[in-house]
Specification:
130 residues, alpha/beta, 2 helices
């Protein structure tokens, strides 16, 4: 984990979406210390009237390239989160042409008891995952 949901406006190509997924997974793997094959990403595309992403008065100029990352994860160190935020926007700018002001990131913490990866088992609780 984490479970990473990425909301975006409809219109990106399949290659662009895959690139965004690959970049965000690489950064998460390195900055949030993920295990091998710990990749759970879901993209949802929206029509323009389905997303309003403002700036809480910070003065960001959002475009139609805005990306909203919502991660559900076990608790993470604040330093790891800050490094993840900073590196994700840097890598998306360099590798996908997404302006840092067009990236909104949210991490919601939960516990290992809140996950079942299949078969109706709590793998963290029954010892199959550490």
């Amino acid at each position: 984990m984490p479970l990473m949901r990425i909301d975006m406006f409809r219109g990106r190509s399949k290659a662009e979406i895959k690139n965004i997924l690959d970049i965000s997974y690489k950064v998460a793997t390195e900055e949030l210390h993920l295990l091998p094959r710990d990749r759970y990403q879901i993209v949802t595309q929206h029509d323009p009237e389905e997303m309003i992403i403002e700036d809480v008065g910070l003065g960001f100029d959002r475009t139609d390239q805005v990306l909203v990352f919502s991660l559900t994860s076990s608790p993470r160190d604040e330093g790891d989160k800050e490094r993840f935020y900073a590196r994700l926007v840097k890598e998306l700018a360099a590798g996908a042409g997404v302006a840092p002001s067009d990236v909104l990131i949210n991490i919601t913490s939960n516990t290992k008891a809140d996950w079942s990866f299949g078969d109706g088992e709590a793998q963290f609780m029954n010892g199959k995952l550490g």
